Amino acid sequence: MSELRWNRQLGEWVVTATHRMDRTFLPSSDYCPLCPTAPGGFETEIPRSDFEIAVFENRFPSFHLNPPPPAIGGTELFKVAPAGGICEVIVYTPRHQGSLADLSPDQMDLLVSVWRDRYISLVEKPGIEYVLIFENRGAEVGVTLHHPHGQIYAFPYIPPVPARELQLASEYLDNNNGCLFCAIKDEEIKAGCRIIMQNDSFLAFVPFAARYPYEVHIYSFEHRVSLAELSGKEINDLSHILQKMVQCYDSLFQKSFPYIMVLHQEPAKNGCGLGHLHFEFYPPLRDAEKLKFLAGCEQGAGTFINDSLPEEKAAEIRKTINGGER
Amino acid sequence: MSDRGFIKETVYKDDGRYLIYYSIAKKYKIKASSEEVKASAGEIDKNVRT
What we know:
heterodimer; B: two-stranded antiparallel sheet
């Protein structure tokens, strides 16, 4: 069962998806549903014995192509709606071990091209308002399958975080006649001290007001509203900087570094060019062993307390660059 | 084959869900393993700011 319930107090939708309670939880590598199906073995989500990248509809989706009617009747104050949408899983590699950091350059380019293709395909579907590409990495952020993979949620509405960004971008455009994200990127370049790395097309930095100690954003230099606008060279540059960033993270504490990685870009409709392609990494660690929890002030007040200075964390991450390559 | 150099094949599972296989087109694999592309990646490395 899955449905949308309107949280009138906060003005946002909540998805109830009770069937997700039964989803596969940390299976042994012999029973990984994202591995290729071995001859004579149990049938995984991918029936072939080999593949490069596979994308499939999530077996336990929060949003459904043909959503069931809500289980409860709504009222004017307590609105309910069907949870229409699409949830996909992207399996990065047939290999059970490893991560985005270990993919070959070819495979990394293919992954970015697949993200681009899925974005273009999904934004055109009826009823889809926003496409969120993301990856949860590590048990610390609740990963239930360790096989390298990411996810895509095609929402029937623009979710609150990108909606707020776009609203602020709209106000900035009205007042300054320019792109808010381009202005942020230019200000970070001017400051310089929070920049991690850059190539011809992308810039990686710890944001001025980072909410997490090791938060990093990656912006396109040119004003690209979505993956659909990227050239072949920009796809190559994006795949390179993303992989390098994950390698740097892994070098920080000489272990697989947990993170949530999301891609913000243009909504499906009515975007008016306000979006600006950028990745955001939210790592839960504040040092090698300690986690940053979202506690009273973050959850109850919406104000993040960062126990570190973004300039110092940027310098710490920068030190890993030369030794960051595996 | 798309203009981005990959092959895309869609199949359907018994329960109706789609499954899409993406693979690199052969001619792009050859190109990607060439010295030309290795040199290009090296060029990007040089631009990494330290």
